[in-house]
Amino acid sequence: MPNGDVYSPGLRYVCFETASRVGKLAQGMSRDMLMGVGSGLLAGALWGFVFIAPGLTADFTAAQISAARYLAYGLIAVPLLAPRWRALSRKLTRADWLALVWLGLTGNIVYYVFLSTAVQLAGPAPTSLIVGLLPVVITLIGAREKGAIPLRALAPSLALAVAGVALISFTSLAQGGAHGSWQRQALGLLCAGGALACWAAYAVGNARAIARVPDISSQDWSLLLGVATAAQCVVLAVPAFALSPVPQSHEAWLRFSAVSIAIAIGASVIGNALWNSASRRLPLTMMGQLVVFETLFALLYSFGWERRWPTLLEVTAITALLAGVWWCAATHRIERPAHD
After folding, report:
1. Most CB atoms closer than 10 Å: which of 89, 191, 312, 317?
2. Helices (H), strands (E): how many in the chain?
3. Which residue ranges make up each domain of the chain?
4. Where are the alpha helices (DSSP H) in 132-270?
């Protein structure tokens, strides 16, 4: 394990420099933009914990972890929605329900199966940085929207995101022995790529779906998504637990239940509501860059979980990702897209 004294000066520099630049940038933001960025940051802080959960519940398969998390999400959502169910159901069309089902399957169930598998095979740090490519993918899609900032203006921030992910991926494959053979590591990174594709589809689809229901709050949309996801998880849970072995230890089950409930409340109920709030305030090109906060917090938590300081390449990757977010926010502040 690297000595903390070697890397702490570099980390302090990154933190202080980032805080200084973010403070200056915030002074030029509109209230709506500032609220959106703040909501995205808090959502990322909560979502970052999902990269640690598979390590805490390593006795269970990725499908079991995903099923338990989203069943808990639905069980929490139902009583919270009950007082407003009739009023909400009248506001939703068949297309809205289909969107919720699709978003739950793609952005929740399948995404988390891929993510959990990737964490178990490759580790949380490389997985979080592969998923860190989301800003690039979402921004490329968002650049095609009407009134979006031209892609050439966003190119520098995208290049920084790509550089950060490339650095950590190279480090991960070169040091594959930390989590097994290089084949195991490569499979883990491939699963992380699947998670990346699922989350990109979710982020774009959710932003468009929530724009069609302006009279439904961000919190209620999050809870409705929980109900739709849990209904599908009932089908997933049967083969997940019936066809795969499960531990007999009461301690393992207690830990598994606690982690599932904690992630359901923090990452799903609260985190999704914060993200929905940000989606209503910011253009898709900016939302893509905010996903980096999930990556950065996941890295922070993974370093704490592994009880180590980041390597120099990891510090460089983090710096590149932070610089990319800063550059993107500055570009949106200056350009002022039509739909911002």
Report:
1. 317
2. 17, 0
3. 58-334
4. 134-142, 151-174, 182-211, 218-242, 250-263
Tokens for 298?
């996941």
List the structure tokens of 246. 């499960």
Query: Does the pLDDT of residue 12 top 70, yes or no?
Result: no
pLDDT tens digits, 81-118:
999 998 898 899 999 999 999 999 998 889 888 988 88
Tokens of residue 143, six digits: 């650049």
Mean pLDDT of 197-215: 89
Candidates 288, 327, 322, 321; CA nearest to 143 is 288
Residue (of 321, 305, 312) closest to 125 by Cα position: 305
108: which DSSP letter?
I
Crossing angle of helices 312-335 and 4-27, rounded to 10°: 0
Q: For tokens 């910011």, name the residue.
A: 282
In contact, 179 and 241? CB cutoff 8 Å:
no
Give the tens place of pLDDT for each residue, 127-155. 766 776 777 777 777 666 665 667 677 77
| Spatial separation of the C-alpha atoms in residues 66 and 233, rounded to whole Å | 8
Cα 170 to Cα 307: distance, rounded to the nearest angstrom: 21
CA angle, 226 as apex, 200 and 236 as ends, to 5°? 85
DSSP designation for 213: -
**DSSP secondary structure letters along 246-279:** ----HHHHHHHHHHHHHHIIIIIIIHHHHHHHHH
